[in-house]
Design brief:
The complex is a heterodimer of chains A (about 110) and B (about 110).
Chain A (H helix, E strand, L loop, with lengths): L3 E4 L2 E4 L5 E7 L5 E8 L3 E9 L2 E4 L8 E7 L2 E6 L8 E8 L7 E2 L3 E5 L1
Chain B lengths: L2 E5 L2 E5 L4 E8 L5 E7 L6 E6 L5 E4 L2 E5 L3 E6 L8 E8 L7 E2 L3 E6 L1
Parallel strand pairs in B: 2-11
Antiparallel strand pairs in B: 1-3, 3-8, 4-5, 4-9, 6-7, 7-8, 9-10, 9-11
Classes of the chains: A mainly beta (about 110), B mainly beta (about 110).
Chain lengths: ~110, ~110
């Protein structure tokens, strides 16, 4: 967890509200990944960036989800509007040269009521 | 459809009781298989990478092996601190896109 700081750790919101999840890599990296983890579907890749550029967003469930990486030290995942089925733990992960060896943050637990 | 299946879903062991976790996969063009460990309330932590059938990797009480259809994570003389969820993942390309299994939750009782 030391390489990636995620905030907030917990988020409770009401259906229809906008939610922004944040990820701050501490160490240098080439790749940044956003994942979602639920009991039903397990750990799923949503989107990943290479040198701050989005490479593959095929895992983003729908247009309500968007992700940005304005610089190497910061990324956001936004859900607008949020729905109860978005409730999950969202992880940010980074990787360097070997992009399959990924270092995960502690995650943000999102509850949409 | 590419699929990663882990078994059992849950495993309870007594301290010192060795066992194995299974990860079977149906993926065309496997490029690599990975094991991660996840503690409650934390993100997954990388353990091993396996790239070809017959390959083995070891770390302390853990040993990972790979065949053409499955991988095993062998745990020898486990301790309570080995309790965690163990995730298996595969990749079809060198892009960092990992397909994860549902995991095996291991509990080791003293």
């Amino acid at each position: 967890d030391a390489g990636v700081i995620q905030s907030p750790r917990h988020e409770v919101t009401e259906m229809g509200q906008e939610v922004t999840l944040r990820c701050k890599p501490i160490s240098g990296h080439d790749y940044l990944f956003w994942y979602r983890q639920t009991m039903m579907r397990g750990l799923e890749l949503l989107i990943y960036f290479n040198n701050n550029v989005p490479i593959d967003d095929s895992g983003m469930p729908e247009d309500r989800f968007s992700a940005k990486m304005p610089n190497a030290s910061f990324s956001t995942l936004k859900i607008q509007p949020s729905e109860p089925r978005d409730s999950a733990v969202y992880f940010c992960a980074i990787a360097d040269t070997d992009k399959n060896i990924q270092y995960f943050g502690a995650g943000t637990r999102l509850s949409v009521l | 459809e590419d699929q990663v299946t882990q078994s059992p879903e849950a495993l309870r062991l007594q301290e010192g009781e060795s066992s194995s976790l299974n990860c079977s996969y149906t993926v065309s063009g496997l490029r690599g298989l990975f094991w991660y460990r996840q503690d409650p309330g934390k993100g997954p932590e990388f353990l091993f990478t396996l790239y070809s059938a017959g390959e083995e990797k070891e770390k302390e009480r853990l040993k990972a092996t790979l065949t053409k259809k499955e991988s095993f994570l062998h745990i020898t003389a486990p301790k309570p601190e080995d309790s965690a969820t163990y995730l298996c993942a595969v990749t079809k390309s060198n892009t960092g896109k990992l397909i994860f299994g549902q995991g095996t939750t291991l509990q080791v009782k003293p």
